[in-house]
UniProtKB/TrEMBL annotation:
<dbReference type="Pfam" id="PF02567">
    <property type="entry name" value="PhzC-PhzF"/>
</dbReference>
<feature type="active site">
    <location>
        <position position="48"/>
    </location>
</feature>
<dbReference type="InterPro" id="IPR003719">
    <property type="entry name" value="Phenazine_PhzF-like"/>
</dbReference>
<dbReference type="GO" id="GO:0005737">
    <property type="term" value="C:cytoplasm"/>
</dbReference>
<dbReference type="GO" id="GO:0016853">
    <property type="term" value="F:isomerase activity"/>
</dbReference>
<protein>
    <submittedName>
        <fullName>ARAD1C00462p</fullName>
    </submittedName>
</protein>
Length: 297
């Protein structure tokens, strides 16, 4: 079976920035099961690979499956924006819907890139982490000593959970290194973060705002891996900050991630809140084509 693919850099403004994503086009009627998709994702060995199933019914709706090299995901941010930009440019459209495991994602596309109203079920866990939790996971002593005593843990959807670690300066952010092992989900709400699921560490530093846009510098690490752009973690963080501030209505954020890796990624998010509840999370950004070809499966 021959399948067309593209590799794109998501959240990039220039070549070799952003987070790489493999996009595989699945023709209507193709016999491509989930096990084979997993093998293809492992072969690409990027943080995520998406499989976009062609439709022939004239609707602007597409089924999209998201895989890491090791498992399928219900949602991930940079695969969402990469898929939005790819489909919009390929089909010359300005709106549509992605159907992913976490639910339908309406999107628009324009001069500012793709904008997706993401499926979300924001949950702030009762348990907070302490520096000792990071020490046990094997974070360096230099970063452990500047981690706050109480670190909130937030799930953006079930199965996508991140510890939100506020630091005081870019100098502290530069100290972040990948830990020996992942943070433990023990003690977290099992319906959102069951035993064995991943808890990422998302470090952030608040930066001066530009007008109404709140700006943040961020880094996301798990064991032996740093991600240049993590839309799901960014969505969880901005949802948490919105709720913690007590804001109602719309709040705009821009997050700059991946600088320390040499892969600057510009992530735009707008949250809409009612008292104590996030009602809308819109994730936005650009995507740049890097390569294309045909794979044999």
């Amino acid at each position: 079976m021959e399948l067309k693919f593209e590799v794109v850099d998501v959240f990039a403004r220039a070549p070799f920035e952003g987070n790489p994503l493999a996009i595989v086009q699945v023709p209507k009627g193709a016999n491509l099961d989930q096990q084979t998709k997993q093998k293809i994702a492992k072969e690409f060995n990027l943080s995520e690979t998406v499989f976009i199933h062609d439709n022939d019914d004239g609707s602007n709706q597409w089924t999209v499956d998201i895989f890491t090299p090791f498992s399928e995901l219900p949602f991930a941010g940079h695969p969402t924006i990469g898929s939005v930009c790819f489909l919009s440019e390929k089909n010359s459209i300005t709106s549509g819907t992605l159907n992913i495991k976490a639910g339908p994602i309406p999107f628009t596309y324009g001069p500012n890139g793709g904008l997706a109203s993401i499926a979300h079920d924001v949950h702030i866990h009762d348990k907070v982490l302490s520096p000792s939790d990071f020490e046990q996971a094997g974070f360096s002593p230099e970063i452990v000593k500047v981690i706050p005593e109480r670190v909130p843990v937030v799930s953006i959807v079930k199965g996508m959970t991140f510890a939100q670690v506020k630091l005081q300066s870019l100098e502290e952010l530069a100290l972040v290194k990948c830990p020996r092992e992942d943070l433990s989900p023990r003690g977290l709400n099992a319906s959102y973060c069951p035993e064995g699921s991943l808890v990422g560490a998302y470090f952030y530093v608040e930066q001066p705002s530009e007008g109404e846009v709140k700006k943040l510098r961020t880094r996301m690490v798990i064991s032996d891996f740093e991600d240049p752009a993590t839309g799901s973690a960014a969505s969880a963080l901005t949802s948490y900050l919105t709720l913690a501030s007590g804001a109602s209505g719309k709040t705009k954020f821009q997050l700059l991630q991946g600088v320390e890796m040499g892969r600057a990624s510009y992530i735009n998010i707008e949250t809409t809140a009612e008292p104590s509840k996030i009602t809308v999370v819109e994730l936005g950004g650009h995507s740049r084509k890097f390569s294309s070809g045909t794979l044999l499966a």
